[in-house]
Amino acid sequence: MRTAAGEVALPTFQTMAATDPLDRRIVEQMVVGVATRQYARSLEPLEPAIESRSTSKSTVSRRFIARTQQQLDTWRSRPLDDLVLTVLPLDGVHLGDHCLIVAFGITEDGTKHALGPWEGPSENSTICRSLPANLTSRGLRTDRSVLVVLDGSKALRKAVTDTFGPAALLQRCQIHKLRNVLDHLPERQRPWMKTKLQRAYNCDDVALAKRQLQGLARQLETDHPSAAESLREGLDETLTIVGLGLSPTLRRSLSTTNAAESLISRTRSLKRNVKRWRNGQMVVRWVAAGVLEAVKGFRRLKGHKEMPKLVAALRARDQQFGLSTRETAERVA
Known about the structure:
51% of the residues lie in helices and 13% in strands. The chain is α/β, with parallel strands linked by helices.
């Protein structure tokens, strides 16, 4: 159709010609476990006289690749300057020979945001440096304190401290630390050690918790020196959350990388659909599809009503280290 001004786009035709709804349904079906070979069977049955199109294995695969790549590109490039992140949990998942680190942000009101995946052969310095570099290039602030929850990766820790400097308040995942220590002990000794460690981590006093952990390390150093060394390594950072005066519920939520792990756990159900990971790009696309599906069911962090206490503690730390220069300049102006 034309007018004197030119062609007129018909909304009905645009809707009928759009491939986006079809592509979106293909991605959803793949994510919930439908194989490409079985996609046609997941559709409503057609009349015998109607020919089915765009349901072959190759066509479904091409559409899935195109749609998930588009989702991934959009996700990775999303600006972050509108997010006021208070907590930054980071964790990884291994798929085949590939390692993916997923960044996960929590804002001041406890709202969760998936920030993006990064892929490499292992949690080495290269992949770890690319993660915070990408976040800062998209506008993530590094001039004020943020609680960064990590596992035991030294490369990831170094990348975070290099990027955020004194603004990074590090919390080592207590569950990862507990597992590392228990792995160095015989089966019969693990129950009592687990109880002792959990009692120390649940303590409300940092000094008392530290004395308890140091006492456990002394008990272990003769018969199990590797367990003692593992316990002492990063001991102070496992207790960071204890000194912030938070409620037990919020402490449990922020003392581990469980928030990030629950996010990427959705990707584990995808493994059964893939017989062979052909390359890193394929891994990233599938993980992105699983994570973006999980985002639809996000709820606020457990203990989010206590988040103002964490925010107050972080802003007090800003004052101590001379951070948060942007807010200071705005107040002066």
